[in-house]
Amino acid sequence: MRRNKTQYKKxxxxxxxxxxxxxxxxxxxxxxxxxxxxxxxxxxxxNGKTLEGWTxxxxxxEGDWGNFSVNRKEKAIHVYAGETHGSRQETDxxxxxxxxSHYILKLEYKWLEKRFDPRVDWDRDAGxxxxxxxxxxKVWPWCIxxxxxxxxxxxxxxxxxxxxxxxxxxxHIQVKAHHTDGWYDPNGDIAxxxxxxxxxxxxxxxxxxxxxxxxxxxxxxxxxILNGEVVLEIFDFVQKADDGSTSPLEIGxxxxxxxxxxxxxxxxxxxxxxxx
Length: 276
Fold this sequence. Notes:
Layout: H1 5-41, E1 43-44, E2 54-56, E3 68-71, E4 76-79, E5 92-96, E6 102-115, E7 125-133, E8 142-149, E9 166-169, E10 173-180, E11 183-184, E12 189-191, E13 195-196, E14 210-217, E15 221-226, E16 229-240, E17 246-248, E18 253-258, E19 261-272
Antiparallel strand pairs: 1-19, 2-5, 3-4, 4-19, 5-18, 6-14, 6-19, 7-8, 7-18, 8-9, 9-13, 10-11, 10-12, 10-16, 14-15, 15-16, 16-17
């Protein structure tokens, strides 16, 4: 019995593409398993329900977290919740009790409406801190900071708070970075900045969630990422003793700032990496 052309083409198409489709299904399945396994390596530093595992600089005692509270609806850490717009407020810092050294940290933040005296008319400002050490009751503690702020990247005047900029808090801490005239430049000269601006990174409008990520490798290197874009890299972190000797700055707590602007932090999770 002879096959017609339609039957013949159908037979050819089936024999050619069926293995390919099966292979595709297998690859997709393996990719999903890999993603799920990778996600499991991240652990929550905040579960959306309680601030257990954190301590605030302005805490009044057990069960108090200063200017930080839990927003159950948003499953987020709420900064200055319930305070009146324009009222006088204090800065604060929320730090993890546990210290970390080699890791990837991810979180999301969103600016809300209210701002507080003395910065009612300034750009909004906060920060993600790492390698926090020393006195945790201090505002601000010794640490390295990835700035959080609503200033556009091309703003150059004072009161500039652009997400991704660098601040080094503590005169005994030294880090290195490539720069050109005080701006981060991966092809520029090496310096030991106390602060460094970046022209990279676009923050989403107020009321939208922004994604932040830092990759920290002990004292060797840290990479700052905003909404999927690498905005800055620093390296060679050391701390100086009173006698002038230096040692690597390898480890510390993770901190979140409250600095006169209402905002939310959520989906705070960490994946620890092997020591190098």
